[in-house]
Write a structure and sequence with these properties.
Elements lengths: L5 H10 L4 E5 L47 H18 L3 H29 L17 H17 L5 E5 L5 E6 L21 H13 L4 E7 L9 E7 L1 H10 L2
Antiparallel strand pairs: 1-2, 2-3, 3-5, 4-5
Helix pairs in contact: 3-5
């Protein structure tokens, strides 16, 4: 994890928002068997006529239960405790965001392996089975994966925008007009530069690093009259990623 110069980077992001051009805008298969092995039925007490037996959580389809297992209130309470605990351990905004990013990095490293595996074992559509997970060498597919698949898994919807800098080829931005995790967070005036979305930035950085696109990812609050809670995830790529893109041909 690299140290983040939150001040200079944030100023460049806020002042140069207009320099970014938009790339994207929001917008289990059946098997047959030849024979069946009889299974012993457990002896369970009969249920009352007006009561139904609930299924075990392990028997539920993974794709159908996504986003329905954890309520927003429970997540907001957990994240508030994380923020309060982290605040007691740090002495500055830069260190605050760095610790939140480290927590997110640990989550992203696990999601990078979990999501392709779940999609392969439990395809979303029963009419087609997705191909086995493969590694991509191009930049735009992995950014689209984060903007759509990863973001939808985390927040129930894709990100609002995916942009690239018109001046710096190594900078990309993922925009979220109303980030879920920051809805219940009130930042005091003396810490107005703090962005608690650094946790999401850490998740994105772990996915980029694990997929072979090393980069430095930071989160910045860029409010607007229409979207006062707008957050921008700034992705700054390492030179080796741009060199590979040039070698593969744009």
């Amino acid at each position: 994890m690299s140290n983040r110069e939150s001040g200079s980077v944030r100023d460049s992001v806020i002042s140069g928002t207009s320099r970014f051009s938009s790339l994207l805008s929001p917008a289990g298969s059946s098997q047959t068997s030849t024979f069946a092995i009889p299974q012993p039925q457990p002896s369970l007490p009969p249920l009352p006529a007006n009561q139904k037996r609930t299924s075990v959580i392990y028997d539920r389809p993974v794709t159908k239960s996504r986003g329905a297992e954890v309520s927003l209130g429970a997540w907001a309470f957990l994240f508030a405790e994380i923020v309060q605990y982290t605040q007691k351990q740090v002495s500055g905004i830069s260190e605050f965001e760095k610790r939140l990013s480290i927590l997110g990095y640990r989550v992203g490293a696990r999601l990078l392996e979990l999501l392709p595996l779940r999609d392969y074992l439990y395809p979303v559509s029963s009419l087609r089975s997705p191909p086995p997970p493969t590694r991509t060498l191009r930049l735009l597919p992995i950014l689209t994966y984060i903007h759509s698949t990863l973001y939808r898994y985390l927040f129930g919807r894709p990100a609002d925008s995916l942009e690239r800098s018109t001046e710096n080829d190594d900078e990309y931005m993922i925009g979220d007009d109303d980030m879920v995790i920051t809805r219940g967070v009130e930042v005091p005036k003396e810490m107005s530069d703090l962005s608690c979305a650094a946790l999401v930035a850490g998740i994105v950085e772990a996915v980029m690093d694990g997929a072979g696109f090393p980069s430095r990812v930071t989160a910045h609050s860029v409010p607007s009259p229409q979207h006062p809670r707008r957050t921008v995830i700034l992705i700054k790529l390492d030179p080796e990623v741009l060199a590979r893109e040039a070698a593969l041909g744009k």
